[in-house]
Design goal:
heterodimer, A: 94 residues, mainly alpha, two-stranded antiparallel ribbon, B: 483 residues, alpha/beta, Amidase signature (AS) enzymes, eleven-stranded mixed sheet, globular
Chain lengths: 94, 483
């Protein structure tokens, strides 16, 4: 077992996912199966290989810094679960 | 003539000769949808009003004698992870069940300008994660060629819509084979352009370094017509390439003389169904008879591509999907405090496959695991790229299977935690390397379609069209319309 139930619980917290306690054992089994599946990568010696985060030789892509039309505020807020006077409303933070 | 089986090119000719009007054509597709949709279930949303309004506008333009795109008035479907202004776009997730985008994706803008009539938004695996369209939060889609079979995934809805005659072509996205594998399962053409060829602006992000929008069509000619419309630089996607876009129609020549085609031995190994392998070799022989040179080539790191892809795509998805927090759009589940709201919203809004990928991605990016998993996978990505680069020193394109087998039966893969991930084993490498790749239907095995994949160099879509067109001309049309 690469990860324990306790570690899966921590992982779910980092991922901001509510996992019901009774599902924890199953999730631990599932995630360990995936990690076992990934294991063969360790057989490969990659010490001399550069990582490739991207496929094309793109450097910084710039455009001119000029103001452009943006979406109407009402439109943007139309999908908000809760809004008030042009603000997104969330539960108490502090 | 059956308007639901003929190509976009022929539909365009009928429209141009005024043998059929755009509105009449669109109505006949909407009628077709209402006939077969309770079996096929290809669509999450059918956009009847929008489609008819667009079709009428095209009819008026034609009366005025305006110059029209070959796609004007053609009924199309779009996968439900591509934003359409004012039309619900769900990613087949509870999280976005009621999300109505305030803007169009770049490809949707281009299609509207061309005058194609959007008939609906297609079912898919939630956020593109899956191989069967059984991971949709709404319902599963059925393969139009076999009521017991899945249509493949993640774009099973879009592929089924084209195969069932519910749309003349479709657009979707491909992160590891999500267009090519369902195309193979449903007997249509699926195409992933070069990374950067098509703007991803308005495509709901899953794995940004791998995602690419592409078409599903009935044949290679239609593919050229759609590529002519969707390709090109867009300032709003900084990874979209400033590379000239040719007229792809010029590659539709029935001539492959001297074309050098590599058959990677690793793609024809134990994982491939023997009858599928036979069909592919038969197709390779046809290409040779037409003057192409087919030879075996080794791609030694192929076996490592899928695990590396799993890590990279999960890592990128875990980061991209962090935006679903119940604050600005999408589902919100209330809680006492904001952290509780995040957790509850995400716990209820995401399905099991998505949660699994988010957790694996988070694991791979965590301190302590970062080098062992994420950086390791990026290094393997370099090795995959090098395998391709070496092969393309000798060959113009590569010929491989699009999928290890024909379409799976429904529920066949339900209890496997890796749920048929192998199904994308032949398609995922092209995403890791950013290469253009096509899946072409080449015939049937036990009544189900087989897909052949061709992969070419960056921005060399033309070679794929040329080889695909020649092969298509030499093959009998497969049964594609039995919904």
């Amino acid at each position: 077992m690469k990860i324990s139930e306790k570690e899966v619980e921590q992982l779910a917290f980092l991922s901001r996912l509510d996992l019901p306690g009774e599902e924890l054992a199953d999730w631990t089994k599932t995630l360990n199966a995936v990690l076992d599946y990934l294991e063969p990568l360790n057989k490969l010696d990659t010490s001399a290989i550069e990582p490739a985060a991207h496929v094309l030789p793109l450097k910084n892509v710039f455009r001119e810094d000029r103001p452009q039309q943006s979406l109407d505020k009402k439109l943007v807020l139309a999908n908000a679960p809760e809004e008030d006077e042009g603000f997104f409303v969330v539960p108490r933070i502090v | 003539m059956d308007l639901h089986t003929i190509s976009v090119r022929r539909l365009g000719e009928l429209l141009a000769r005024k043998e059929v009007g755009s509105e009449e054509l669109t109505r006949s597709y909407l009628e077709r949808i209402s006939q077969v949709e309770d079996k096929t279930k290809a669509f999450i949303t059918v956009t009847e009003e929008e489609a008819l309004a667009q079709a009428r506008a095209v009819d008026e333009q034609r009366v005025r004698g305006e110059e029209l795109s070959p796609l004007a008035g053609i009924p199309m479907a779009i996968a439900d992870n591509i934003c359409t202004e004012g039309v619900r776009t769900t990613c087949a997730s509870k999280m976005l069940e009621n999300f109505i985008p305030p803007y169009d994706a770049a490809v949707v803008e281009r299609m509207k300008k061309a005058g194609s009539a959007l008939v609906g938004k297609c079912n898919m695996d939630e956020f593109g994660m899956g191989i069967s369209t059984e991971n949709s939060c709404f319902f599963s889609t059925t393969n139009p060629l076999d009521p017991e079979a899945v249509p493949g995934g993640s774009n099973g809805g879009a592929a089924a819509a084209v195969a069932a005659g519910e749309a003349a072509f479709a657009l979707g996205s491909d992160t590891e084979g999500s267009l090519r594998q369902p195309a193979a399962s449903c007997g249509v053409v699926g195409f992933k352009p070069t990374y950067g060829r098509v703007s991803r602006y308005g495509l709901i992000s899953c794995a940004s370094s791998l995602d690419q929008i592409g078409p599903l069509t009935r044949d290679v000619t239609d593919l050229a017509l759609v590529l002519n419309t969707i390709c090109g630089r867009d300032e709003r996607d900084s990874t979209s390439a400033a590379v000239d876009v040719p007229d792809f129609k010029k590659y539709l020549v029935n001539d492959v003389k001297g074309l050098k085609i590599g058959l990677p031995v690793e793609y024809f190994g134990a994982g491939l169904a023997p009858l599928v392998a036979d069909k592919l070799r038969e197709a390779a022989r046809k290409l040779e008879e037409m003057g192409a040179l087919c030879e075996e080539v080794s791609m030694p790191h192929t076996d490592y591509a899928l695990p590396a892809h799993y890590i990279i795509s999960s890592a990128e998805a875990s980061s991209n999907l962090a935006r679903y927090d119940g604050v600005r759009y999408g589902l919100r589940e209330d809680a006492e405090d904001v952290l509780g709201m995040f957790k509850r919203t995400r716990g209820r809004g995401f399905g099991a496959e998505v949660k699994k990928r988010i957790m694996i991605g988070t694991y791979a990016l965590s301190t302590g695991n970062y080098n062992e998993y994420y950086v390791k996978a990026l290094k393997v990505r370099t090795l995959i790229k090098q395998d391709f680069a070496r092969a393309f020193e000798r060959f113009d394109c590569l010929l491989t299977p699009a999928s290890p087998a024909t379409a799976y039966k429904k529920g066949e893969l339900k209890d496997d935690p890796l749920a048929g991930y192998q199904s994308h084993i032949f398609t995922a490498p092209a995403n890791l390397a950013g290469l253009p790749a096509m899946s072409l239907p080449i015939g049937l095995v036990d009544g189900l379609p087989v897909g052949l994949q061709l992969i070419a160099r960056h921005f060399d879509e033309g070679t794929l069209l040329r080889a695909g067109y020649a092969l298509e001309q030499s093959l009998e049309q497969t049964g594609r319309n039995r919904a």
